[in-house]
Write a structure and sequence with these properties.
With 242 residues, the chain is α/β, with parallel strands linked by helices. The chain has helices spanning 33-42, 60-67, 95-107, 142-151, 172-198, 211-215, 228-240, and strands at residues 2-7, 12-18, 21-28, 49-54, 71-74, 84-85, 112-118, 121-127, 132-140, 202-207, 223-224. It folds into two domains: 2-74, 2-Layer Sandwich (Nucleotidyltransferase, domain 5), CATH 3.30.420; 84-143 and 171-241, Nucleotidyltransferase, domain 5 (2-Layer Sandwich). The protein is built from seven helices and eleven strands. Strand 10 (202-207), helix 6 (211-215) and strand 11 (223-224) form a beta-alpha-beta unit. The structure holds adenosine-5'-diphosphate, ligand PAZ and potassium ion (K).
Length: 242
């Protein structure tokens, strides 16, 4: 039995996997970490294996506590990896990005592949068909764009994701929605187009909390896999223990 935990900067995602079956997906607020993990683990018939990738605000004490709940593996650059890590600063690479790259390498070993994770940040991670991880990009996620427009101006209100984002915004609110959402969509399509010109047989995965919303407007062919990071953690766990 495996519990996969992804600690992002906005929220924590947890899944239970047992004998080839997903036992449940949970979204947890950081403040409820202990109580919610307690709820999940106390029901289990045996001590689980726990794999965690954390880039969010989880401290040493919380990790120590987690280690009492199962056999714990914390994803890090020191792990055995299913790809060759060509990042110039491998020890500063986010554990979430390590797990995403591992998922790409394990699921699509023969292809060039790009994963775009639309969470707090939008991250781009590229693994080529020789399974070399080359790096990618980091840009602000949708909520971060809304928040920074409000934080760094005197007049712009704090908005959140809307279904109305016409190309030509005709009010302040619409202009912000257009800038944030159409801007992110154009950025994502732009990145994919650039990768397509450089690499053939490219597979693109869109994941993260805003993936389904953004996918509606993205023009390129992509696979929308909202839980790709959690799924990658399970594949990766099986890989390092094989
Ligand atoms: N219930 C929710 N709570 C928080 N964010 C949500 C929720 N549902 C959808 N989202 C969207 O998901 C995004 C966060 O995505 P996620 O992949 O969980 O981020 P991270 O991995 O950085 O914590 C938010 O920007 C928000 O737009
Ligand atoms: C870029 C990130 C902040 C993304 O975090 P997220 O949006 O998943 O919450 C995280 O992957 C991170 O802290 N990375 C460290 C820097 C790097 O990957 O090079
Ligand atoms: K992200």
């Amino acid at each position: 039995m495996i519990i996969a935990i992804d600690v992002g900067n906005t929220r924590i995602k947890v899944a239970v996997y047992d004998r080839n079956t997903w036992g449940g997906f949970y979204h947890i607020a950081t403040k409820d970490f202990r109580s919610q993990i307690e709820n999940i683990t106390e029901k289990l018939p045996e001590k689980p294996f726990i794999i965690i990738s954390s880039v969010g605000k989880l401290n040493e004490y919380q990790l120590k506590w987690l280690a009492t709940k199962g056999f714990l593996h914390i994803v890090s650059a020191n792990d055995k990896l299913p790809f060759e890590n060509k990042y110039a600063t491998p020890h500063t690479l986010g554990a979430d990005r390590i797990a995403l790259a591992a998922g790409l390498a394990l699921e699509f070993p023969k292809r060039n592949k790009l994963v775009i994770d639309c969470g707090t940040c939008i991250t781009y991670d590229f693994v080529n068909q020789r399974n070399e991880y080359l790096g990618g990009a980091i840009s602000p996620g949708l909520n971060l764009r809304y928040k920074s427009l409000n934080d760094y101006t005197a007049k712009l209100p704090l908005l959140s994701i809307s279904d109305e984002y016409p190309l030509t915004g005709t009010s302040t609110n619409q202009s912000i929605h257009s800038g944030v959402i159409n801007g992110a969509v154009a950025e994502i399509d732009g990145f994919i187009n650039e990768y397509k010109t450089r690499y053939d047989n490219l597979t693109v995965i869109l994941t993260g909390g805003d993936a389904i919303f953004l996918a509606e407007s993205i023009k390129n062919n992509i696979f929308v896999r909202s839980n790709f990071l959690i799924e990658s953690l399970v594949l990766y766990y099986q890989y390092i223990n094989s």
